[in-house]
Design a protein that fits this description.
Elements lengths: L9 H22 L2 H14 L16 E4 L5 E4 L8 E5 L4 E8 L8 E6 L5 E5 L5 E2 L3 E5 L6 E5 L3 E3 L4 E4 L9 E7 L13 E12 L2 E10 L4 E8 L4 E8 L8 H7 L8
Antiparallel strand pairs: 1-4, 1-7, 2-3, 4-5, 5-6, 8-9, 10-11, 11-12, 12-16, 13-14, 14-15, 15-16
Amino acid sequence: MVFLPNGYPHGVRRIIGVVGAVIGCLLIVGCSGNGGLDRLASSARRASPSPLQPSPSPSGLPAAVWVLSPLGLNLRASPNPQGQVLTTLSQGAELNVLDLVAATDAGAGWLHVRFADSGTEGYVSDDPALLIDEAVSQHVESTSGYSNLFPSSWSLVSGNPAVMSAPPSDQSQASLSIQTATTTAQLPKAPAAAATELRQESPILIYGKTTYLTVYKLHSGAYEFVASAQFATLAALFDFHQSASAGSGTGLFKTLLSSVIIPGG
């Protein structure tokens, strides 16, 4: 409390009284030791927002992608086709996605990625013919020597045909079979079940060979996609099935076809 003679004007007396009250509060905090100051600092820290932690992958982007291309994929120092090549990633390499760089022309955009094996960061073309956003495994058929990628969650039965199938819990009920022969004339006819042809899609590139695929709707309601090609050392039939609920989209089938490697081409 601050006492003033009665001669001071009322306004001055009021201002001086407020200043005195503030000084008194400060003295009380100081006399209570560092605890009071610590409590004030702690309150200030709690009131201040903590810095945001970076997320593993920006919203809307996959956390990782895997290299599809049989020839591998260049990891570049900058997001353009002329950027310095840091390394060439082999087929099946896993890349952690950090960011997306939008396309500046009619071509694909670029992904800022980190190579899972070495930690090297760089840029790769965001092209579905080169990358897949699902973990994949490689199948190598020992008899004919061809290889292809398929989702790691699928089961594999090797042979001729080799059959790769989605788990029963997958509503797509998708499966891919690959059968080989010396010539396309020796390959089985597909589809084997009653079906209606819906359309053809082209061009389809399978290890350097240009062909087409045919989309069928089976009378059971499911869909079947068929493609074949003659290579130097063998002919191959690629037969893909998926459920009615999965629709007639051929994206996954074409993605898996782009991973095929044929010995001798």
